[in-house]
Amino acid sequence: MRILFQGDSITDGGRDRNDPRKIGWGYALYASRFIKERHPDMEFDFLNFGISGNKTDDLVGRWTTDCIEWQPDVVSIMIGVNDTWHHCDRRDWLPNEVFEANYRNILERVKNETNAKIIMLEQYLLPSEDKDYFREDIDPKIMITRKLAREYADVYVPMDGLFAAACIDHTSLWWSVDAVHPNNNGCALIARHYADAFDVVLSKMN
């Protein structure tokens, strides 16, 4: 079974850009381990095409070569925080309708040009005094992501809410150094929810 991870630096995890099967040290690595532990009798081909700094328009531009041509059985997408972050200095926020159109484009292509199941992982922001103002833009875009998930996703992983819950017992620094990029604890948290999502997808395939 071919599982393709797609997204920005959170997914990238320092992967080898020359070999998508060298999936880096981030949540994709943890998720692949959890999935293999749960399903030792299955054969998996894990591919990571996350690229640090990417936004939704970057995924649109490379979707043929970095998704469609690989014909995955499962494609997961976590994208969106940079659509906010890259506009934060001037607060010249990307119009929500542009964000939605970009994201819808790649989801439509998965539905129309592959047989892949779709796992969507919500963009997130942990509590952080220096980034709390991102909320004025990221919150409506999270709502758009959730709307698109209702239309396209086979499973949705609400990471913004899940991290909010996780920050009750631990501070943001337990999970991330900057409220966005996960450390080992954060990667493991994402990966556990990812593995749960994969199990749901697998049940839909059987």
Can you characterise this structure?
The protein is α/β, with parallel strands linked by helices and 206 residues long. The chain has a single domain (2-205), classed as SGNH hydrolase (Rossmann fold, 3-Layer(aba) Sandwich), CATH 3.40.50. 51% of the residues lie in helices and 11% in strands. It is built from 9 helices and 5 strands, in the order βααβαβααβαβααα. The protein has helices at residues 9-12, 27-38, 56-66, 81-85, 96-113, 135-152, 159-169, 172-175, 184-205; strands spanning 2-7, 45-48, 74-78, 117-121, 155-157. Strands 2-1-3-4-5 form a 5-stranded parallel sheet, sandwiched between helices. α3 (56-66) runs parallel beside α5 (96-113) and α5 (96-113) packs parallel to α6. The longest helix has 22 residues, at 184-205. It is globular, with a radius of gyration of 16 Å. 42% of the residues are buried. The model has no long low-confidence stretch (mean pLDDT 97).
What's the CATH topology label?
Answer: Rossmann fold
Mean pLDDT, as a whole number?
A: 97
Identify the strand order in the major beta sheet: 2-1-3-4-5
- What would CATH call the homologous superfamily? SGNH hydrolase
CATH architecture: 3-Layer(aba) Sandwich
- In total, how many domains does the architecture comprise? 1
**Structural class category:** alpha/beta
Shape: globular
Report the sheet with the most strands, covering strand number, pairing sense and barrel closure: 5 strands, parallel
Into which percent range does the helicity of residues fall?
40-55%
Order of helices and strands: EHHEHEHHEHEHHH
Radius of gyration: 16 Å
Low-confidence stretches: none
Quaternary organisation:
single chain
Measured by DSSP, the beta-strand proportion falls in: 5-15%
The strand count comes to 5
Number of H- or I-type helical stretches? 9
N-end to C-end Cα span = 13 Å
